[in-house]
């Protein structure tokens, strides 16, 4: 199997423990875009500390699924319970869930009119009501963690794609979330920059963060994930632990997909 | 024979470009004579400019500043430059400048609009140059010096005012001390200057119209009621409904209660200055009162309308769309006639709404509808990801709008917003149609009706046009400065 971004470093698994506590519970959830049935009967439980990679062909609904978890998309039937809070149209619940769930986007979505530091302190100051000084200290802590503290006073437009994505991760972490969602975090990056972002994500996994990650980085899935979910046509086709999933896929659709992304 | 391999032994030093690629010759070749057609156009252009200057320059150079009437002007010009010579009669400006600036405002009170105008710049400084203490202080300082000079000049031009009971030396002293104090505030406590900015509408109103001091205080009390009701009900009702409740409560106060309370207070404690009626306003005083108020009020209103138009709530969306489309579909002149004739019918009986105030309200509505559409363009230009990122971080709607969306949308919309403002400022001259003395039509008509200036044609329009140009050009330059300052993509 060839993978351009195979993870070669040693992974510290001492903190990667999956607890029995349920973090996210999705039961018989359905979603439509107009007439189009994008998510069909999704059932899924994520325990605290799990690192889940969701993959599948484009249009399979994997991004829509994780965007439902923080209600960027609305589901029409079924239940989504995040950290004990059910997502309904109640705005208070939605804001509560959103401040506990961090999200990293494909196109970073940093705020271009604010400096890196301001990007990171904005939500803690306005949502968590953290004093500015404390928020700035936290922000600098996470910026050092993603290895760009020296860029704190620049604007996003002055940074490279990989740096911007690491800032986006730091920005989410500043809210001290209990769950992190990654929506194709490396798909918009040059090959050289993918590694720096993956490294940051691996470090996060090593600290025991609950992570749901839509990605095609199979090296990352093998090294870090404890479960891989394969989706097609809006449904979960197969899920398994990474070793089994890659070496011994059960469904024909999964086999075809794996042969297409790993075969060359 | 071709060679596949090549190795350079020495690097070449850079050389100067040939003469035709340098300096003025290159510039002329590229810009003036790049093709036969362009060469021809250049020659034609030079000829046209020459003809224009040839016909206009003598007229401008022969200008006369000292005369008491148009015939006298003509005599002086013919005596100086020979039979049939033409020239500008700027003496009209010298004689009647005060009407162009103040209309029929009482001469002994000219210091009041002058001071209000000066204070406007001090109030604007912290808004236009946010957080720039040095610029704010320099601006306030320059305003102080210029206003002192202007007030002394006005006092010398109308010597009778110094003896006047209401004005004179005391007013000059008050004005200078006040401005100096504000300059000091700008330097020592820059944030406090914003309090003055918030109070300025009441101060400016009182300086311009005068009368009982309880009037503006009562109006300010209405805003206090608005804020009070809002903060009282915000917890239970949410931001939108609470704001509505505040506006309703304040409107009840303004329309039904205020006049009784302020009347009673005035009869107990009669403090006040000479009241000046709206009929006496005119010239650039009127243009600035209408223009500046409408500009300041239409921006927030336009923002709310733009947000309303993009709202998910059907009622708010329908109201915003209806308002914008109706106002944009009706000519401004119709709205001005509505202001002068019809609006009175819709208001509760015995509310005596000032004509200028009515015009300001409708001009504000008119401008707000355009601003709303300009801002909507800015909102539409923002990538969806910005909204999603703000949502994903847990910011609520108003936080997201204020901190993420509006700063970017407004920045994109600056050129459009400022164009609207410039258009609005020039449109203030249309108030001539409802009988107000705007500088272009109203005052010029009055001046030309005087027997000594009968027949004067170009001079008033050139004078008024130059002042309008100066105002609009500075707005345009400010907007370019702002765009440069807010530029964040260093790519």
Automatic annotation (TrEMBL), chain B:
<keyword id="KW-1003">Cell membrane</keyword>
<dbReference type="InterPro" id="IPR035906">
    <property type="entry name" value="MetI-like_sf"/>
</dbReference>
<protein>
    <submittedName>
        <fullName>Amino acid ABC transporter permease</fullName>
    </submittedName>
</protein>
<comment type="similarity">
    <text>Belongs to the binding-protein-dependent transport system permease family. HisMQ subfamily.</text>
</comment>
<feature type="transmembrane region" description="Helical">
    <location>
        <begin position="138"/>
        <end position="158"/>
    </location>
</feature>
<feature type="transmembrane region" description="Helical">
    <location>
        <begin position="281"/>
        <end position="307"/>
    </location>
</feature>
<feature type="transmembrane region" description="Helical">
    <location>
        <begin position="170"/>
        <end position="188"/>
    </location>
</feature>
<feature type="transmembrane region" description="Helical">
    <location>
        <begin position="355"/>
        <end position="375"/>
    </location>
</feature>
<feature type="transmembrane region" description="Helical">
    <location>
        <begin position="456"/>
        <end position="478"/>
    </location>
</feature>
<feature type="transmembrane region" description="Helical">
    <location>
        <begin position="239"/>
        <end position="261"/>
    </location>
</feature>
<feature type="transmembrane region" description="Helical">
    <location>
        <begin position="193"/>
        <end position="209"/>
    </location>
</feature>
<dbReference type="InterPro" id="IPR043429">
    <property type="entry name" value="ArtM/GltK/GlnP/TcyL/YhdX-like"/>
</dbReference>
<keyword id="KW-1133">Transmembrane helix</keyword>
<keyword id="KW-0812">Transmembrane</keyword>
<keyword id="KW-0813">Transport</keyword>
<feature type="transmembrane region" description="Helical">
    <location>
        <begin position="215"/>
        <end position="232"/>
    </location>
</feature>
<feature type="transmembrane region" description="Helical">
    <location>
        <begin position="412"/>
        <end position="436"/>
    </location>
</feature>
<feature type="transmembrane region" description="Helical">
    <location>
        <begin position="319"/>
        <end position="343"/>
    </location>
</feature>
<dbReference type="InterPro" id="IPR000515">
    <property type="entry name" value="MetI-like"/>
</dbReference>
<feature type="domain" description="ABC transmembrane type-1">
    <location>
        <begin position="284"/>
        <end position="479"/>
    </location>
</feature>
<dbReference type="InterPro" id="IPR010065">
    <property type="entry name" value="AA_ABC_transptr_permease_3TM"/>
</dbReference>
<feature type="transmembrane region" description="Helical">
    <location>
        <begin position="110"/>
        <end position="131"/>
    </location>
</feature>
<keyword id="KW-0472">Membrane</keyword>
<feature type="transmembrane region" description="Helical">
    <location>
        <begin position="39"/>
        <end position="61"/>
    </location>
</feature>
<dbReference type="Pfam" id="PF00528">
    <property type="entry name" value="BPD_transp_1"/>
</dbReference>
């Amino acid at each position: 199997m060839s993978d351009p971004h195979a993870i070669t470093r040693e992974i510290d698994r001492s903190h990667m423990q999956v607890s029995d506590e349920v973090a996210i519970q999705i039961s018989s959830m359905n979603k439509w875009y107009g007439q189009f049935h994008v998510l069909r009967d999704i059932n899924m439980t994520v325990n605290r500390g799990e690192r889940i990679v969701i993959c599948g062909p484009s249009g399979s609904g994997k991004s829509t699924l994780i965007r439902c978890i923080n209600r960027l998309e609305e589901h029409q039937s079924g239940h989504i319970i995040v950290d004990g809070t059910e997502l309904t149209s109640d705005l208070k619940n939605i804001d509560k869930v959103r401040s506990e769930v961090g999200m990293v986007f494909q196109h970073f979505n940093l705020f271009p009119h604010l400096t890196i530091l301001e990007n990171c302190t904005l939500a803690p100051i306005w949502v968590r009501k953290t004093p500015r000084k404390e928020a700035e200290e936290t922000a600098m802590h996470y910026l050092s963690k993603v290895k760009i503290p020296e860029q704190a006073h620049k604007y996003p437009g002055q940074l490279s794609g990989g740096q911007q994505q690491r800032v986006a991760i730091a920005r989410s972490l500043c809210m001290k979330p209990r769950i992190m969602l990654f929506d194709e975090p490396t798909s918009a990056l040059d090959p050289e920059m993918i590694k720096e972002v993956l490294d940051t994500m691996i470090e996060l996994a090593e600290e025991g963060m609950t992570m749901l990650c839509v990605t095609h980085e199979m090296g990352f899935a093998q090294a870090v994930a404890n479960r891989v979910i394969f989706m097609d046509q809006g449904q979960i086709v197969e899920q398994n632990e990474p070793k089994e999933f890659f070496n011994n896929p059960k469904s024909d659709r999964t086999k075809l997909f794996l042969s297409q992304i790993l075969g060359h | 024979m071709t060679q596949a391999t090549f190795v350079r032994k020495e690097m070449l030093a850079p050389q100067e470009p040939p003469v035709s690629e340098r300096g003025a010759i290159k510039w002329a070749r590229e810009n003036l004579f790049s093709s036969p057609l362009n060469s021809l156009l250049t020659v034609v252009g030079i000829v046209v400019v020459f003809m224009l200057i040839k016909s206009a320059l003598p007229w401008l150079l022969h200008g006369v500043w000292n005369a008491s009437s148009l015939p006298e002007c003509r005599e002086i010009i013919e005596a100086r430059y020979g039979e049939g010579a033409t020239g500008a009669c700027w003496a009209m400006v010298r004689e009647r400048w005060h009407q162009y600036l103040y209309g029929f405002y009482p001469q002994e009170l000219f210091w009041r609009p002058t001071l209000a105008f000066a204070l406007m710049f001090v109030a604007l400084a912290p808004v236009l140059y946010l957080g720039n203490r040095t610029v704010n202080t320099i601006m306030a300082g320059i305003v102080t010096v210029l206003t002192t000079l202007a007030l002394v000049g006005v006092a010398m031009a109308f010597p009778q005012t110094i003896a006047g009971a209401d004005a004179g030396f005391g007013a000059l002293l008050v004005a200078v001390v006040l401005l100096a104090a504000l300059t000091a505030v700008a330097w020592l406590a820059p944030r406090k200057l914003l309090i003055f900015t918030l109070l300025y509408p009441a101060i400016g109103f009182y300086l311009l119209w005068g009368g009982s001091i309880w009037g503006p205080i009562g109006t300010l009390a209405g805003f206090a009621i608005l804020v009070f009701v809002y903060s009282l009900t915000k917890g239970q009702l949410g931001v939108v409904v609470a704001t509505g409740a505040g506006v309703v409560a304040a409107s009840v106060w303004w329309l039904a209660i205020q006049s009784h309370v302020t009347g009673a207070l005035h009869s107990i404690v009669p403090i006040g200055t000479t009241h000046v009626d709206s009929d006496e306003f005119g010239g650039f005083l009127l243009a600035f009162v209408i223009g500046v108020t409408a500009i300041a009020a239409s921006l927030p209103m336009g923002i709310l309308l733009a947000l309303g138009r993009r709202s998910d709530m059907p009622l708010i969306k329908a109201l915003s769309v209806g308002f914008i489309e109706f106002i944009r579909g009706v000519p401004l002149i119709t709205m001005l006639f509505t202001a002068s004739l019809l609006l009175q019918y819709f208001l509760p009986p015995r509310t005596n709404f000032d004509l200028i105030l009515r015009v300001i309200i409708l001009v504000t509505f008119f401008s707000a509808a355009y601003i709303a559409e300009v801002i909507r363009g800015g909102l539409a230009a923002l990538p969806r990801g910005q909204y999603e990122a703000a949502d994903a971080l847990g910011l609520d709607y108003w936080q997201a709008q204020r901190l993420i969306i509006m700063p970017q949308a407004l920045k994109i919309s600056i050129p459009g917003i400022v164009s609207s403002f410039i258009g609005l400022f020039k449109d203030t001259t249309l108030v001539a149609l409802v009988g107000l003395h705007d500088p272009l039509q109203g005052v010029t008509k009055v001046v030309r009706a005087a027997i000594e200036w009968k027949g004067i044609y170009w001079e008033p329009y050139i004078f008024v046009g130059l002042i309008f140009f100066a105002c609009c050009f500075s707005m345009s330059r400010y907007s370019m400065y702002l765009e440069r300052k807010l530029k964040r993509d260093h790519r």
